[in-house]
C-alpha cells in the first residue's frame, strides 16, 4: 500500500485528522463566540474531513495492532489507545451525523449539547495522542526487535561531533568515571543524568 505497511500507514495518516478535529472544536467555539457563519461553515467542513480521515486512521491502527511485535506493556497501552480512538471517533461521528440530520433546524439546546460533546471529543483526541506517543516514544511500538537491538548497540557505541558542533547538543556526563559515556537504558527509561 504505497510502500507502507499498516504500522507506517497508521503513523502517516493519524496526525492530520486529529489536527482537523481539534480545529473543528476551535472553529465551532469561535463561531459561537463571534456569531460568524464563516467559522460555523469551516467547523462543519473540518469535521467532515476529520471524521473521514479519523476512521481511516482507526482502521489502519486496528490492522497495525496485529502487525507489530509487542509484549504485555505495549499490548495494554494499545488496548487503551484503541478504546480512546474508537470513543473519539464515535463522539465526532455522532456530532457530524446530528448536524447533517438537523441542518439549520438545530435548537439552542442541541447546539449547546453538540458543543459540549465536541469538547469531550477534544479531550479524548488529545488523550488518544498522548497514549499513542507513549507507545512509540517510551516503548518503541512498531519497531522490530532486531532494529531496536541494533539501535541500542549503536547508541552504546556513542558518537562524535565535528568541531564547534558539540555546544549545540546536551549530553549527560557520567558522574562515575568508570561509567562509559553514551550508555543506554531500556526503552521507557526517563531522561536523567548520572
| Coarse structural class | mainly alpha
Secondary-structure element string? HHHHHH
SS elements, strand count = 0
Percent of residues in beta strands? Answer: under 5%
Distance separating the two termini: 45 Å
- Count of individual helical segments: 6
- Which bin fits the share of residues in helices? 55-70%
Mean pLDDT: 83
Main β-sheet description: none
Determine Rg (CA atoms, Å): 22 Å
Quick one: overall form? elongated
Given as residue ranges, the uncertain stretches (5+ residues, pLDDT < 50) are 173-181
Word description of this protein:
- By secondary structure, this protein is mostly helical.
- The chain has a domain at 6-139.
- It contains six helices and no strands.
- Helix 2 packs antiparallel against helix 3 (37-65), helix 3 (37-65) packs antiparallel against helix 4 (72-102) and helix 4 (72-102) runs antiparallel to helix 5.
- Residues 173-181 have low confidence and may be disordered.
Amino acid at each position: 500500500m504505497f510502500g507502507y505497511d499498516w504500522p507506517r500507514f497508521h503513523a502517516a495518516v493519524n496526525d492530520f485528522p486529529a489536527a482537523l478535529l481539534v480545529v473543528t472544536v476551535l472553529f465551532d467555539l469561535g463561531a459561537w463566540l463571534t456569531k460568524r457563519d464563516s467559522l460555523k461553515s469551516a467547523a462543519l467542513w473540518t469535521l467532515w474531513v476529520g471524521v473521514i480521515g479519523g476512521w481511516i486512521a482507526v482502521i489502519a491502527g486496528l490492522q497495525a495492532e496485529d502487525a507489530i511485535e509487542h509484549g504485555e506493556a505495549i499490548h495494554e497501552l494499545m488496548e487503551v489507545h484503541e478504546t480512546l480512538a474508537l470513543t473519539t471517533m464515535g463522539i465526532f461521528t455522532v456530532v457530524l451525523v446530528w448536524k447533517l440530520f438537523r441542518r439549520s433546524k438545530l435548537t439552542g439546546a442541541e447546539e449547546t449539547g453538540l458543543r459540549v460533546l465536541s469538547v469531550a471529543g477534544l479531550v479524548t483526541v488529545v488523550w488518544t495522542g498522548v497514549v499513542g506517543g507513549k507507545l512509540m516514544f517510551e516503548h518503541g511500538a512498531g519497531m522490530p526487535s532486531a532494529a531496536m537491538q541494533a539501535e541500542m548497540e549503536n547508541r552504546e557505541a556513542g558518537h562524535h561531533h565535528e568541531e564547534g558542533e558539540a555546544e549545540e547538543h546536551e549530553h549527560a556526563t557520567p558522574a562515575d568515571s568508570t561509567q562509559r559515556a553514551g550508555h543506554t537504558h531500556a526503552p521507557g527509561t526517563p531522561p536523567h543524568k548520572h
